[in-house]
Amino acid sequence: MYSDIKYHKICFRYTATRTNLMNMAPGAALDRLGDVGFINNVVAGIIKSVLLGEEVFEKPFGGYAPQCTEFGATPVGALSLPLAMNVVKDGRALLLLVAYYDNDRGHKMRKIQLSVNGRPLPIWDAYHLSLLNADLIRFPNPIIIEPGSTFEHRQWDQDGDEVPLSKDAGFIGYVFASYGYLIGEGLRRKVMN
Question: Which of 76, 104, 168, 186 registers the highest number of CB atoms within 10 A of its CB?
């Protein structure tokens, strides 16, 4: 089971944030994944995203069901790279990426690298995925992408040649944004395009 979070020791800007985050219970929902280290990293990423969101959105956090005066979160189970880039580009949403998936079994992707605001992150070797017949890379630490950031992705095959992103590949994570963006045209338009 994940480590119990000491919410009372975290200094949130708004008092409602602590209660809403505790009610969201992000760790308990992740227990089924079984990997305690990964679960704890995701929960820590959610807390960091909420703290950053309080500053960026200048509103309290409302969890999965925010009020119109709050910002909230929605889990995203299949976020394509173009969608991820569009969500942060307009400056109204924050992304927390926890894993990368590629469901294309014929795809020969070997390594991936993400860049945020032109800063490349470490290259992850995905070769073991084909050996394990798996399709998911869990990031060692969740990646937080702030609103208005640039976001890029590169990947290489086993021969070292750069290959395009498969249409069956993308990210798993969370979108944090204002209530209006989460329920309205903002996110829906991004998902449809």
Answer: 76
pLDDT digits (tens, 9 = 90+) for 130-150: 556 566 777 888 899 998 888
Strands 136-145 and 124-125: unpaired
Q: For residue 134, report the phi and psi dihedrals to the nearest 5 degrees.
A: -110, 165
Q: Is the dihedral of CA 182, 186, 190, 192 positive or negative?
A: positive
> What pTM does this model have?
0.79
The distance from CA 10 to its chain's CA centroid, rounded to whole angstroms, is 21
Amino acid in position 14 = Y
DSSP 8-class letter at 189: H
Mean pLDDT of the chain: 76
What is the H or E stretch that residue 172 is in?
Answer: strand 169-178
Packed helices 81-89 and 185-192: angle between N→C axes, nearest 10 degrees = 150
Please give the structure tokens belonging to residue 190.
């991004």
